[in-house]
Amino acid sequence: MNYFPDEVVEHVFDFVTSHKDRNAISLVCKSWYKIERYSRQKVFIGNCYATNPERLLRRFPCLKSLTLKGKPHFADFNLVPHEWGGFVLPWIEALARSRVGLEELRLKRMVVTDESLELLSRSFVNFKSLVLVSCEGFTTDGLASIAANCRHLRDLDLQENEIDDHRGQWLSCFPDTCTTLVTLNFACLEGETNLVALERLVARSPNLKSLKLNRAVPLDALARLMSCAPQMVDLGVGSYENDPDSESYLKLQAAIKKCTLLRSLSGFLEAAPHCLSAFHPICHNLTSLNLSYAAEIHGSHLIKLIQHCKKLQRLWILDSIGDKGLEVVASTCKELQELRVFPSDLLGGGNTAVTEEGLVAISAGCPKLHSILYFCQQMTNAALVTVAKNCPNFIRFRLCILEPNKPDHVTSQPLDEGFGAIVKACKSLRRLSLSGLLTDQVFLYIGMYANQLEMLSIAFAGDTDKGMLYVLNGCKKMKKLEIRDSPFGDTALLADVSKYETMRSLWMSSCEVTLSGCKGLAEKAPWLNVEIINETDNNRMEENGHEGRQKVDKLYLYRTVVGTRMDAPPFVWIL
Amino acid sequence: MDEFINLKETELRLGLPGTENVCEEKETVSCCNNSNKRALPSGSENETESSTRKTETSPPRKAQIVGWPPVRSYRIKNNIQTKKNETDHEVQGSYVKVSMDGAPYLRKIDPSCYKGYSELLKALEVMFKFSVGEYFEREGYKGSDFVPTYEDKDGDWMLVGDVPWEMFLCTCKRLRIMKGSEAKGLGCGV
């Protein structure tokens, strides 16, 4: 390849799009590194504190698309305090100053402000695509800036963000000349929606393929929207309460029948169950169905809907579907690849909604299944062994037994053997979440067999440091390890410091690591940021003395090329 | 803290003998970490309060562990909101804030304690020392500078008295007694 001119090599690289592959290419030789960096358009940064905007821009001056992730995963479950970090403003400021031609920004678990959105909207003439997932810190005023100033906006995709809804007129801020929208997702907005502005916007967006509405959009508005956008591929229904004999319902039925391109359905945030049947005519085309927010739709209606969905590849549902419902899924959805079953009763009502039987049925009926997230009340080793045999192709296996430390409910044994069977059979397993009663043995299995494992979530598991050591020593591809409430301490933490250079991050909360252990680690590894998150008071930790033997409540460490971050709040102590 | 002690005493456990102590310790540590929970936006304060109230009066549940089960807070919020809408008519004792324009601080009342609008308004009159005037279906309240309004679950400010009492109980999120020129706009049957 060295005998070809650079332009030819670059042209070849254009066919390589995955960031992992491009990273690999850049390591081959200096000349490839140089060619690759000038031609790289999409950059993915899995931890925003691993580098900084200056280094990003120095290396990739022609960048067009940036993906950034901020807070650690356990922030989703309120384990990371609100002001921890992950601010996007410095990134946008730096990108704006450099005049790079940014077209796409995708953020996950970051703090976004109206100021950042305003700056973003004004700084990049060709800005096309904004995707915000689980972010917070902004209001509908920020959305108004994006709507008003981004002339070529194609995607505005807001997934599960905490947005302060000022009930302003952000939808009317899209100028009449804006006709380029392809994706509009505002399902997470809590307030009222200007229906007139929305209808006009949809009517003048012939390329609109994905529309996800919030609660405030009622049935009759939905009917009108669908009739002026029959090209819809992906629809998120907001409110769905109405009388099945009403005129709006009939209009909706007619509009739905015209949407022959519809492949993905979600939402039903407030839904009256008997109206679901309006969607039956297009169900046979659906490949993706997300009913996990439809808490009011009961099992029988869900089952009736799913019976029509023979081509379903992705299903997100609540456990109110029950084991019987999952059996229907197993016999109907032969193309199913991804299943997520969420708990419907979080206040601990103790309804045995789904059990190991549902999981086994799915594994037996759906040969293409590769990703599962399953919340359930109980599990057995036998069931897991069967699942492993039926589905050796799992890439993601996340099982959450709602009660911590719960053993096999038939044999009262730990679930080591069950999970062991999973990791042994599923040679491509990349992500695993454990639950139930587990000893060090399960970690021995994981270390031995889970060669491709990149992300492991551990809670209330294990007996001694050996457990964590098995994992650190065995899983060569480990990137993200997150542990809570497990008896792993300094010995495991300090055994192989160089391991953390090969990983993106490690989270340990309510474990046995001590302050002196963490200090020791920080000393040995200056290329790591070792953060102690202690809301009670960091100063008290030091004052208490005990020669650093007191336990650290939350530890978050990650590799970085730019040293200690400057924006940490007072309760975060970076060693 | 007292609430936590009571819950633990009446707790039903299914763990293996011998594992109990370990669980207890871990749960105590996790339970005390309340500072993790960030304040939900004000709109959902009432929802959280009423769901907590539900758990207190129903049979003793397991002590809640922070961040468990691992469900995104966004999803939990939606779940609670939907469940509240579902069981609104069952919920007893959901307090709402009452503000009066010009008053230095707010009060809280439980509208479901009253049998109807007249009782509610009389209670408010006593609480804030004012009088509402007479209610007319078309023109609203006449004969007073004060107009009782409430915020419904869509976030809109509505005149108290228009909808049936049961519906009002379900949709009322907070009360506000408007005064003066702002009130006139509502009271004049616009």
Description of the molecule:
The complex is a heterodimer of chains A (575) and B (190). Chain A has 575 residues and is α/β, with parallel strands linked by helices. Chain A is built from 20 helices and 23 strands. Chain A has a 21-stranded mixed sheet, with helices on one face. A two-stranded parallel ribbon of chain A has the order 5-7. The radius of gyration of chain A is 25 Å and the shape is globular. Chain A starts with 5 loop residues before the first helix and ends with a strand. With 190 residues, chain B is an alpha+beta fold. In chain B, the strands form two sheets. In chain B, strands 2-1-7-5-6 form a five-stranded mixed sheet. In chain B, strands 3-4 form a two-stranded antiparallel sheet. The N terminus and C terminus of chain B are likely disordered. The interface between A and B is large, with 50 and 43 residues.
Q: What characterizes the major β-sheet of chain A?
A: 21 strands, mixed
Strand runs of chain A, count: 23
Strand order of the largest sheet of chain B: 2-1-7-5-6
- What is the average of the pLDDT values of chain B? 67
Structural class of chain B: alpha+beta
Q: Figure out the total of helices of chain A.
A: 20
Q: Given the structure, what is the number of helices of chain B?
A: 7
Number of strands of chain B: 7
How far the N terminus sits from the C terminus of chain B, by CA atoms, comes to 52 Å
**Radius of gyration of chain B, CA atoms, in whole angstroms:** 21 Å
Helix fraction bin of chain A: 25-40%
Categorize the overall geometry of chain B: elongated
Biggest interface: A-B, 50 and 43 residues
Indicate the overall shape of chain A.
Answer: globular
Secondary-structure element order of chain B, as H and E? HHHHEEHEEEEHEH
Q: What is the distance, rounded to the nearest whole angstrom, between the alpha carbons of the first and last residues of chain A?
A: 46 Å
Strand content of chain A: 15-25%
Function (chain B): Aux/IAA proteins are short-lived transcriptional factors that function as repressors of early auxin response genes at low auxin concentrations.
Subunit structure (chain B): Homodimers and heterodimers.
Subcellular location (chain B): Nucleus
InterPro entries (chain B): AUX/IAA_dom, AUX_IAA, PB1-like
